Amino acid sequence: MTAFNEVSARIVKFLLGLRPGSVRESGRSYDFLLQQINRRRAQLHEIDGTQLQAIIHELRCQAWNDSLLVEVFALAADQTERILGLRLFDVQLLGALVMSEGKVAEMQTGEGKTLAAVPAICALTLASGGVHVLTANDYLAQRDATWMGDIYRSLHFSVGYVTQQMTAEERRKAYACDVVYATPNEVGFDFLRDQLCLDPSELVHQPFHSVLFDEIDSILIDEARIPLVIAGGDMTPPEMAHRCATIARRLRLNTDYGIDEYARNVHLLDAGAAKVETALRCGNLYDLRNVQPLTAILDALHAEALLRRDVDYIVKNNAIELVDEFKGRIAENRRWAAGLQTAVEAKENLPLKKQGQILGAITLENLTALYPRICGMTGTAATQAEEFFKIYGLEVVAIPTNRPMIRVDEKDLLFRTKADKEQALVEEITCVHATGRPILVGTASVAESERLSARLRQAGIPHHVLNARNDEAEAQIIAQAGALGAVTISTNMAGRGTDIPLGGTPPRQRQTILDLGGLYVIGTNRHESRRIDHQLRGRSGRQGDPGSSRFFISLEDDLMERFGIREALRDRTPEVEAIEHVQRIIEGQNLEIRQTLRKYEQIIEAQRRIIHAKRRDVLTAADRSVLASHAPELFQRLCLDLGGIRLAELERRLTLMKIDEAWSNYLADVAELRCGIHWVSLGGKNPLDEYLHQTAMSFERLLNGLDEQIIDAFSHLQLDPHGEWAGLPGLDRGATWTYVINDQPFGDLGERMAKAIVQLVSQTITGQ
Ligand code: ADP
Ligand code: MG
Hints:
By secondary structure, this protein is of the alpha/beta class.
């Protein structure tokens, strides 16, 4: 087989929904395919409008076959050039081929991924029937759908996008399109809402065919395990929260309670427990009947001692807004698990929000698994190649840059104290700013960005701050961050999806900035994950522009403290090389933690699928009547009273409600089990085995109990004097709402892992 045939055979296999081959291929074997596409693109270029229409028409009329790959790529590239005036680079076509093959294309920032995705999206749509293009936020979903829209339409593909404030009707319309741009959260929330529909006409999703992720590492690695949640009903938050907040405020570290910085865990010491018992007058706090106050006080302590205002969350419009660690921006719609969320609200003296019962949940990883075809692109995948392959079976292919990358990544500067570091930062910024060269400073938290901003103000340096507090101004600040004399201080926000043009917008002084050396990126911290650091560096040196980057770090940084590096380095001259090594170890450990947690989730996801399939059969009336088959007498009586059609409809709705209720209760039980499961390990049992055993048993109970519940509900049904039926529970659901849980379950597990990390790290650094 020629190289061409091999590659195109793999692509076609993927497009048709078969497992992609697992042969690792170098970029070179794509060459022949590229040549073919370029030859065809040159032909199309010469063709006039009417003739082109005929060609497009012909393409759209054919069923998918091998020979269409080159044709659809060439047409997409040709239309891009005609409509946007941008000629796709070969490396962009290469990226598109890699994605069409079900892989991850690693393409650096500024290489034009938005455009590169287009031929792949067209091929996927043609072959599979539809594509979701999932991107980091609503703004990008709308921007990209609009920007690329005419290209799709010219090829007779419909295109739509979904954003948070859209109605169900608008969403349904968008999802009916061939190409849909959205965030994974919106797709996931709609999926959860669909699972609670009581009538098929309420569904908004179409069947899933293909998905292409932009910034795939952000979604499938950083956020993969975060559950999306749909909740309903009112559960008034416990009165106790305010009292507990007051008590927690008075307790003292190491006397009353202890914390574990690594695992972010907190526990009461004897003295503290005694104080709580006196304050609450509840007797022995560890008594079984005191589970509620104990949980509330632990949540309050957690909120008080471990969650930091302006780092982990900010207070905005009288409410708590969580800050996304990876993106440095407000994580919209994200909360902590119910009790902790209430505790933080109480800590900040805010009105307590009502908490609902969780009706359904899915992680992004499991959502992804619902698509038969997955592919994606990002600037930073290589360091996570192993994880992509292990978890998702996705290979990462690094695509060369269009022009050689000439950014200079300077060696880190390491300081003993934060104060030393800040001093040096201000001096460096002052110095470079004097030349007019634009500077982008990436900080680790809102608080840090503001502290540095204050220092710069003192030093008389004009600058912009971009953080979770003012993200409305984002597009505008970023657009000017490359202008002459610009100083921009940002949290990780400036990381993704945004292009920083040199010379500002419009790029008036581009040449001046090029002469000054391009954008200078300064990082004030290393992140746990090297990807996040690479993202920051990647803001500079796009498309062969000059640029440089440098990290300023200190031994008092969070990363150093949390993993005990500072201790380990106490008596030694710190070495910069050690840091990257440490990051690598932490990444490896994080992967291990994620893999362990995955084992706990898998069973629940498998069960969710069973429930979902059952529910779908009921919803579409494909299921037999439980009444007819298990309670024939009751069925006949009700048939006479209500009529067969009405009875069928009632049974359908009631069954759906019962399934949802049972599932929701089941989820609550599982959550409780998870909290308690680590105690099992004390008894010498393996927590995972115990967990699997218990969940399997209670799921079986759930399934077995369903029919009985339905029969039971109907046997209490009575006709009232007006001929209306009575005794049936409400058949309409109250309001539901959706959010994302920012939880760190299995604290004990994380703790053990973290301790192992510290040991490893100290050994590495001290070379023992
Ligand atoms: P990325 O997502 O890879 O960081 P973007 O898709 O945001 O990059 O594109 C960055 C910039 O490059 C955009 O302004 C876009 O118009 C431009 N661009 C992309 N492809 C081309 C091309 N083939 N020729 C010229 N400019 C391009
Ligand atoms: Mg992008």
